[in-house]
Structures are given as structure tokens and as C-alpha cells.
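Side project, low priority. Logging it here so it doesn't get lost.
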Amino acid sequence: MADRTLAMMVANVARKVGVGPAIPRLEIMQALNTAHLEVHAAYDWPWTYKETNISLAPSYTTGTVSATVGSTTVTGSGTAWSAGWTNRRIKLDANQDWPVASISGAGALTLEQAYYGPANLSGAGYVLYQDVFQMPADFEPGKDLVLTQPDVRIRVRHIPRLQLETQGVVLKTLFTNLAMGYTDQGRDSTGRYLIRLIPPPTNANTLRLVYKARPTDFSALADISWLPQSYQDILELMAEAEVKRTHGVQGWEVPAAIAARKKLEMKRQVISGPTDNKAEAFAGGVPGDSSISWRGLSILPWGS
């Protein structure tokens, strides 16, 4: 059967259910959406992935700052900070950085927590930088990301949060333009998911991100011909089985069994190898490791 729209799929399911109770169109649409969510989550299908760029902002050190122990206010002199800068941290002494809650002007920012350095600061040097970055709105958490730094041909390694903090004692002071790792950073106030890089970026740069997109509900007029035909077939079979089961129509087990078999066949067809099929070739020699050896911080090119 050729690629079809949602309206065509609803009609096909209604026809397959056959005689008996009149099935509301919206109920069939809901059954198709439920099947879509279930199959989408069953495997990392190739057509569920998207690409985007992550722009790294340069660190900022112009001017000096003043801060008082116990206060969240940091005042800049000779600075040109922007209220549009978000997800920033500021390094105020040799060993500590502080998350920035907001920037209200060219020389005024507020920390997320009170400054508790060894002494008040006046006319002190600083580094204001961004190491936390927002994921796309349709980013689906809990799935592997492919984050690469194209200019040096490396993959940025995902590391646990604790490892970032422990490695960060040294690495976050480097301020290089080479991203060595990233970790999950929760969500921001808008609900968008975040990641955090280490070491902090020094210069402007661009990383390439490949991620699994969260599925959206089908709409009544949607053209979903971008989905493979075999995937559409499975959704129709699953929706048919669910509608028949709900309304007590005999034989619902048959389309359910066929859908399960077809789903397995489709999975076999799209698997030509693991997602990271060159992991063993990268430094470290551990499947799933990246192009960076954390023992020696050596960098290897793709496919080496």
C-alpha cells in the first residue's frame, strides 16, 4: 500500500473493523496515536532522528567586578554584559565559579546563590561564560545523543554528572575551545532540557547535534507519508486490534499478532549495525567510549 495520509489510515482501520458498532473517527485517531507512541518507543528508528547546531558563545573577561561576601549581587566596571545572556556562570576566584541567575544590565548581574568567597572583591578580574545549553523543543530525553565537534573531528563524550564535577576541578579551569565531555543538566524554566559542557568554551564555535525527536500527535489533516509504509501498516494493525478489543469484536488477536511480527521484521530491516558502530575504534577501547581518552586526553580522528 502506498504512503498515506492520516485520513486514509483512519478509513482503512474503520474498514478493517468491519460491520458492528459505529466507531467514532476520533477514537480511531486516538488508537493510531497510541500505537505510534508505542512503536516509536520500541526502537531508535532512523527516521526519528534530527540534526541541529549548538552555538558556543565566547567567554567574556572585559572590565572588573565587585562582590560582597553573603550577597548575590555582582557589579561590573567597564563591562558590557547583555540581559539576553542566559545559562551563564562567572568565575570570581581561582577555585570556584558561580551560576548566574540573571543579568539585568551592562554592569549588573545576580548570582543564584550568595557569594561566599574568601573576601569581598573590588576591581577584580573574572570570567563570565556559558557552559549550559538548551536542547531542541522536541528533544526526547533518555536517548543517546551524537554530539560532535566538526572542526577537530571528534565526538564529545557523554559523562555522568558526578564525573563532570570531579573532572571539573581541573578541566573547567582550562577554558579551551575543545569540548571534552557533556552531561545532563535538567530543565530550564521553559521546560526545555539542558546539557552542560566541560571544559567551558573560550571562543565562539559550533557543535553538531543529532538527537531523537519526541513524537507529536497526528492531526486530522496531517500528511504522514514521511513515515515508512511498513510503519504505517503496523500502526493500522495495532489500531484495528485495539478498537476491536475495546468494542468486543471477535478476532482482535489476529491483527495484534500480525503487528507484532511486522514490528520485529521492520526492526531487523533497519538494523545494519549498532548506533555507534565505530565506538571500539576510538581511544579507550571500550564500546560506547568516544574519541577522547580520559587517561591521556588524547584526540583521535574519526575512523582511526
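Brief comment: The first strand starts at residue 49 and ends at 56.
Revisit when time allows.
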